[in-house]
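Format notes (please read before filing issues)

Several people have asked whether sequences and structure tokens are stored in separate files. They are not. Every record keeps both together, in the order shown below: the sequence lines, then the token lines. Line labels are part of the format and must not be stripped during preprocessing.
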Amino acid sequence: MQEGFSLLEVLVAFSILALSLGILIQIFSRAMTATALSGAYQRAITLAENKLSSVGLEIPLELSTESGETEDGFFWQVVIEDYPLPDTSWETASSLYEIRAQVSWKTAEGTRQVVLRSLRLVPKSESP
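Then the structure lines:
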């Protein structure tokens, strides 16, 4: 009676193990890439929200474009434009501004971006 494994059985077992490990490494690699991309989107959204909330405080509420870059490679731009009001009776009392905060960054796959928009109603006495 023979005990132990034959050389063929050991080679088949190692082949199955190698294939399984290769597949697992690919799965973990994709998961880590997705996690990193998700973190980058979260940072970009937070930056865009901060820029939107700074309009009227750090960024003047007037027709303009402001832009900059963060230390970690995110490019941002805030654009303030007139937004046409549908009812002409409001136009005499107020102006409506569209505020667009755009954040972009480069990845190995290309450039990604996040755009947030907001509207701000400003009385004519405060508008430029």
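For reference, the curators noted about this record: Residues 7-123 form one domain. The chain has a mean pLDDT of 87.
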